[in-house]
Amino acid sequence: MNAPTDPRRGPAVPPFRSPDDPCPRLLVADHALVLCAPSPSPEALAGLDDVAHAIYRLCAEQARGSAPLVVMEIAARLSYPRAATTTHLGRLAHLSLVQLTNPHAATTPHHLQEVLDALRA
Amino acid sequence: MPCAPEPEAGSKTPAAHSQDVGESASVRYAPGPWTSSKVLVTGAARVGKSAFTGAASDIAPVRTIETIPSPRGDQALVLDLGRITISDHHVLTLVGAPLPTVWDGLWPDVARGALGAVVLVHPDAPEDGFPAVEALEETHVPFQVVVAHLHNTTPDVNKVGQVLEVEPSRVTVCDPRSRVAARFAIGDVVRCALAQMAGQVLL
Q1: Interface test with A, best of B6, B36, B38, B70 (most A CBs within 10 A)
Q2: B146-198 pLDDT per residue, tens
Q3: A78:B131 CB<8 A
Q4: Scanning B96, B116, B153, B172, which has its CA 20 to 30 A from the CA of B189?
Q5: Cβ–Cβ below 8 Å for B30 and A63
Q6: How far apart are the C-alpha atoms of B76 and B90, rounded to whole Å?
Q7: Interval B151-165: pLDDT, tens
Q8: Is A106–B35 a contact, with Cβ atoms under 8 angstroms apart?
Q9: Residue B113 — very low, low, confident or very high, per pLDDT cuts 50/70/90?
């Protein structure tokens, strides 16, 4: 563990990990939802490699019956490295095969009230 | 290393890809503007984080285990991802994560964007949750202390509040294996977050 560099924080919670620490961290904070394209281009699909195809297929299967997947959930479900998942999702979005929603979490009072209402219903 | 099932890999040709996805040609963009939010579930080891996440989640949680090198040897870091579909345009993700003292590198991103957090504590060892309380206060993430009510114990809410230096109203007693109780506790987190947004000071 490195020494804390932020004077506002105590030693119990050092703010930065070691540069050598291999554990991924990016996607845990990525709240974007992945929505599948309604009419995927066959040419675009044919050009996908196995990893990108697996990601697209997972998202498409999810889109059939329930709410879309959050990016951080895709990496966990597919056991792919987070960085690779991010790269492939970016490529899928570039090919218009998926849409990525806002990566920031919903924290407005309206959204919170919606959550509260749903949980207490 | 994540424990979710591996996807089929390897031998597909582009043509096979096209055919496979052709089966899912009926997929479409989900209607409306989708949003996602996140609630963090944290606490000491074996206090019931996975049970809590699993009970509250609509789906079987996806468990990810990362092996982290530490001075005491390799350490398994378990993350559980659950989800609750709030509406036809809103997904709530539950992230079950260890205490910030277990692996500090994870904490900032896990906490970032969370609308709130559940700090799960054992009734006999509420002090174990203090690192989480401290970290959440530093990052201004609203939280609710949830005392795991197991084995017919009678948790003392006032004692837990005193140990963790929070008002008794910030302490909820809950059986982490119960879906209803777990969701009610998450509701308390959201209520706390709403109160903080409204300018009420909850200590």
Answers
A1: B36
A2: 999 977 677 899 999 999 999 999 999 999 999 999 999 999 999 999 998 88
A3: no
A4: B153
A5: yes
A6: 32
A7: 767 789 999 999 999
A8: yes
A9: confident
For the stretch A54-85, pLDDT in tens is 889 888 888 776 778 888 788 788 877 767 78
The residue extents of the domains of chain B are 35-197
Q: Which of A29, A39, A116 sits opposite B187 (nearest CB)?
A: A116
Rounded average pLDDT over B102-121: 85
* A–B CB contacts, 8 A cutoff, strictly below: 219
A29 CB within 8 Å of a chain B CB: yes
The angle, 0 to 180 degrees and rounded to 10, between the axes of the packed helices B130-139 and B157-164 is: 60
State how far the alpha carbon of A95 is from the alpha carbons of A48, A74, B49, B61, in Å.
Answer: 10, 18, 39, 30
Distance CA B110, CA B39 (A): 9
Summarize the confidence of residues B50-60 as an average pLDDT. Answer: 95
Chain B residues closer than 8 Å to A83 by CB: none
Domain B35-197 has CATH 3.40.50.300: yes
Within 8 A of B75 by CB-CB distance, chain A residues are none
Nearest to B85 among A47, A66, A107 (CB): A66
Q: Determine the residue type at B66.
A: E
